[in-house]
Amino acid sequence: MGADxxxxxxxxxxxxxxxxxxxxxxxxxxxxxxxxxxxxxxEEQLFGARASAEAxxxxxxxxxVGFALFFATFSTFLCKPGLYLEDLFVEPEQRxxxxxxxxxxxLAALAVARDCGRFEWRVLDWNEPSIRFYESLxxxxxxxxxxxxxxxxxxxxLAAR
Length: 161
Prior knowledge:
CATH superfamily: Gcn5-related N-acetyltransferase (GNAT)
Number of helices: 5
CATH topology: Aminopeptidase
Number of domains: 1
CATH class: Alpha Beta
Radius of gyration: 16 Å
């Protein structure tokens, strides 16, 4: 039996729906106060002159039920590009139908087609269902690598030195 969902590249007109799904992801991750983007901001980053990311949309029953937002990276050790998955989300009531796996498989195919040396992403340490899911696909957690982050005030202060 074929899948009753489809995966496709996001288009300009999808930004409102992607932002709706980003809001649902933020709620799930208990980070709703951090989700401050607008459709216009997202459209500029996905489709503007200096686009910095790409997205895939999962549709089921004629509506967006999931997304993957990703961008290119580079490995100095491999001297190859990489693919970094910033966010993957499938609505809770849509889980268990293979949609998340299909989104990851599509990204893996893009990584192969683009001759990437790595396909990477992060997962919250408390998100055991996602950790188990990723490991079941062959992904490996890298606990020795810590996320280092500067937000706008910090990097603006550093830039001003």
